[in-house]
Design a protein that fits this description.
The protein has about 250 residues and is of the alpha/beta class. The protein has one domain: 3-Layer(aba) Sandwich (Rossmann fold). It is built from 7 helices and 9 strands; from the N terminus they run E-H-E-H-H-E-E-H-H-E-E-E-H-E-H-E. The protein has a 6-stranded parallel sheet, covered by helices on one side. A 3-stranded antiparallel sheet has the order 4-7-6. Strand 8, helix 7 and strand 9 form a beta-alpha-beta unit. It is globular, with a radius of gyration of 17 Å. Bound molecules: 6-phosphogluconic acid (6PG). 6-phosphogluconic acid (6PG) binds next to helix 2.
Length: about 250
């Protein structure tokens, strides 16, 4: 695995990972916005981000420093459910953070996953990215920041082991059939995620120790460990990992 521009930070526990991520989002966006008009971040689902979102909304210092009116929120992946469904990544983010902070509705770019046709929902989101980033035919968006998680099976975003989306090179967003859930997911593709200025993985818990070792220190097998597909084209890759998840790493 390419190690250039890669940093692994081991923190005490999941709480510390969420806090570091929340502080980083505030700091990185404030820094970037000194020279640009707006800041685009792609969020993920999962438990560690949930805690991070709660901190951004409820910690007065973080909430007051965050430039809400100039940050645009996107999602790296979504479940194929309506936005009010208990499994919706949008719903989780809305409930824990977006409904509690002064973010203009126009800055919230959710995946229209209520569309019964997951392929169409993916195509619509791709179009939204093309318009927001003003992309020409073959251009990729450059997110200022992408947050990712990793499942115990090594998946990231909704790039699951052995699925078709892992090999997508042209599309920005695709629907991806995940046999073990017998359902579609909608996900940004690896080329889009890899084109971000900074990619931050949030990893916590003992259940992640084995896949993390395999992804970071094992042989390259991207079909088996899709998180290994994440190799930034120009940006930085930061792994925020708690002690339990880092437990099996040789290089600390
Ligand atoms: C999702 C996610 C997914 C997630 C990992 C890790 O929608 O499920 O985007 O890729 O990040 O499954 O989730 P945890 O942090 O909860 O383990």
């Amino acid at each position: 695995m390419q190690t250039q521009n890669r940093e692994i930070k081991v923190l005490e526990n999941g709480e510390a990972v969420s806090r570091a991520a929340a502080e980083m989002l505030v700091d990185i966006s404030l820094e970037k916005l000194k020279s640009t008009e707006s800041f685009a971040v792609a969020l993920s689902g999962g438990s560690t981000p949930k805690n991070m979102f709660a901190m951004l909304a409820n910690d007065a210092e973080l909430r007051d420093r965050m430039p809400w009116d100039r940050v645009h929120f996107f999602w790296g992946d979504e479940r194929h459910v309506a936005p009010d469904h208990a499994d919706s990544n949008f719903r989780m983010t809305h409930e824990t953070m977006l409904s509690k902070v002064p973010v203009p509705p126009g800055n919230i770019h959710r995946i229209r996953s209520e569309n019964p046709d997951a392929g169409e929902a993916a195509a619509e989101y791709e179009q939204e990215l093309r318009e927001f980033f003003k992309l020409e035919e073959k251009q990729l968006p450059v997110f200022d920041c992408v947050f990712l998680g990793m499942g115990p099976d090594g998946h990231t975003a909704s790039l699951f082991p052995g699925t078709k989306a892992l090999h997508e090179q042209k599309r920005l967003v695709v629907s991806n059939w995940v046999e073990k859930f017998k359902s579609y997911r909608i996900t940004m593709t690896a080329p889009v995620l890899n084109n971000a200025d900074i990619i931050i993985f949030l990893i916590s818990g003992e259940g992640k120790a084995e896949p993390l070792r395999a992804v970071l220190e094992g042989e390259k097998q991207t079909d088996l460990y899709p998180s290994q597909l994440i190799e930034p084209t120009h940006g930085k890759l930061l792994w925020l990992v708690d002690k339990a998840a880092a437990g099996l790493l040789k290089r600390k």
